[in-house]
Amino acid sequence: MSSLQTLSSTISRLSLLRKPLFCYTFKQRTTRPTWSSSPLKLSSLSNRFFCSKNYGQINMSSKDDLIVLGIETSCDDTAAAVVRGNGEILSQVVSSQADLLVQYGGVAPKMAEEAHSQAIDPVVREALDKANITESDLSAVAVTIGPGLSLCLRVGVQKARKIASCFNLPIIGVHHMEAHAVVARLIERELQFPFLALLISGGHNLLIVAHNLGQYTQLGTTIDDAIGEAFDKTAKWLGLDMSRSGGPAVEELALEGDAESVKFSTPMKQHKDCNFSYAGLKTQVRLAIESRNIDGKIPISSVSSQDRSSRADIAASFQRVAVLHLEERCERAIEWALNIEPSIKHLVVSGGVASNKTVRDRLDQVVKKNNLQLVCPPPSLCTDNGVMVAWTGIENFRMGRYDPPPPVDDPEDFLYDLRPRWPLGEEYAEGRSEARSMRKARMHPSLTSVIQASVQQQS
Ligand code: KG4
Ligand code: ZN
Q1: What is the radius of gyration, based on Cα positions, of the chain?
Q2: Which residue out of 94, 116, 201, 382 has the highest number of ligand 1 atoms within 8 Å of its CB and is therefore the one to mutate?
Q3: From ligand 1's centre to the CA of 245, what distance in Å?
Q4: Which residue, judged by its Cα, is nearest atom 6 of ligand 1?
Q5: For residues 193 and 215, what is the distance between their CA atoms, to the nearest angstrom?
Q6: Which atom of ligand 1 is nearest the CA belonging to 251?
Q7: Which end of the chain has fewer beta carbons closer than 10 Å to its terminal beta carbon, N or C?
Q8: Is 269 exposed, middle or buried (0-12, 13-18, 19+ CB in 10 A)?
Q9: Distance 348 CA to ligand 2 centre (A)
Q10: How far is the CA of 202 from the centre of ligand 2 (A)?
Q11: Catalysed reaction per UniProt (predicted)?
């Protein structure tokens, strides 16, 4: 069954619908909705809702009392968290697949799915226990529905639907990259839309203007690999310990090296846009490793001090250029973003690679030079986590973007609404790249376009 068959979707806060079909009525003191439709009606509907008009029925003063469970399984971390509407993090649990990463040198979808399936129940249970609540205290469940590996996404979505149906809870489908950006608003309460965001992870390198929740313009993306992938491969080829993923290992080793010693060239100098490329830098790293006769199969812990120092020089030089590429693109993106939205005051930097201190320090300088402010979540909220999903769920819930509880049992052949390839927004005209436009097949319409269409159909 194809995960791209989204038309028979299940979680569909973003689906197109002429009129809200469902009506929530909220109790005054708790923020738990009660459903005005009968279960019979529920199952007879196609499960496609966009309930913005009904949000007015929620008691506004009780918004802070929302308690949302967030579930994240889009890649190699099984994560869950419980967050309150006022931003209080009640719990956060992450189970990473470090051993699999070490074994396979990357994410193997089938193995990752298996690991998620084993971890999901205990991770969610621990998140609820640590928050000192039970499912019946929840106001809603938020879950990542894309982008990501469909086999992995499915595990989280199934779990979320199970809880939502058993406890009669609304469910919110979350865009993983929107969550990376929006979690910055939990950290920095002054952070208002619009803002500029650089989202850097294992699979994505995005520069976006966040006009509003669910409204994004993509200034740039990678034409091949993301920066996190380049960190991971560099770590592997240098024989580093991948148990915390490659990035932290390269960062640590880079501290020992001379960042000017290996002359890597900065990618895409000749392209005056905001797109990224890390495939060429990866090749440069591989060639440098080969030319120095470094054998990555020998772990760094057992090599001579000379070999170690040679590896450290490569790590430091790679990191310098990888970050320089970010700096150059951010400089241009700030210019473009201020043309589009002159009121922008912040650059948000998030995603796993934003945990890197050099990334944070260098981008802080770029931002200051341009009289903006950097907002970078703490490392535990930069790498994949359940808090960002719960918080994005809360933000969407407040906008009325959620679905009603699913029916109790999904049939065996149920088609889940999973969106493995799902852009955040449309490309800014000046940022288009031929290379990427060739690869648009099987892409879900962007989050922004789906929300816009829903809003238009509502009015
Ligand atoms: O956002 P994330 O946790 O998962 C994805 O959505 O991909 O990002 C994971 C990526 C990995 O490639 C990892 O090596 C990288 O983030 N990463 C880092 C650091 N911590 C994690 N890269 C560089 N420096 C770090 N300290
Ligand atoms: Zn991520």
Answers
A1: 22
A2: 201
A3: 7
A4: 201
A5: 10
A6: 24
A7: C
A8: exposed
A9: 14
A10: 7
A11: L-threonylcarbamoyladenylate + adenosine(37) in tRNA = N(6)-L-threonylcarbamoyladenosine(37) in tRNA + AMP + H(+)
Lining residues, ligand 1, CB within 6 Å: 75, 201-203, 228, 231-232, 245-248, 251, 351-353, 355-356, 383-384
Half-sphere exposure of 222 (CA within 13 A, CB side): 24
Out of 100, 200, 231, mutate this one to test ligand 1's pocket (max ligand atoms within 8 Å of CB): namely 231
Residues 283-295 have pLDDT tens digits of 999 999 999 999 9
pLDDT at 50 over 90: no
What's residue 105's pLDDT? 62
**C-alpha 358 chain-centroid distance:** 21
| Stretch among 64-78, 268-282, 332-346, 424-438 having the lowest mean pLDDT | 424-438
Ligand nearest to the CA of 201: 1
Token digits of residue 202? 């294992």
Q: Distance from the CA of 290 to the center of ligand 2, in angstroms?
A: 31
Residue 378 has pLDDT above 90, yes or no: yes
Angle at 335 between CA 334 and CA 340, to 5 degrees: 90
* Distant-in-sequence contacts of 305-309, Cβ < 8 A, 24+ apart: 308/256, 309/256, 309/257
Instruction: Please identify every residue whose CB atom is under 5 Å from ligand 2, which is an ion.
Output: 201, 384
Q: Is 268 left (phi over 0), alpha (psi -120 to 50) or beta?
A: left
Number of H helices, E strands in the chain: 15, 13
Out of 178, 204, 243, 245, mutate this one to test ligand 1's pocket (max ligand atoms within 8 Å of CB): namely 245
Indicate if the pLDDT at residue 405 is higher than 50: yes
The pLDDT confidence band at residue 434, using thresholds 50, 70 and 90, is low
Q: What is the edge-to-edge ordering of all strands in the sheet holding 373-375?
A: 373-375, 346-350, 195-200, 205-212, 215-220, 426-427
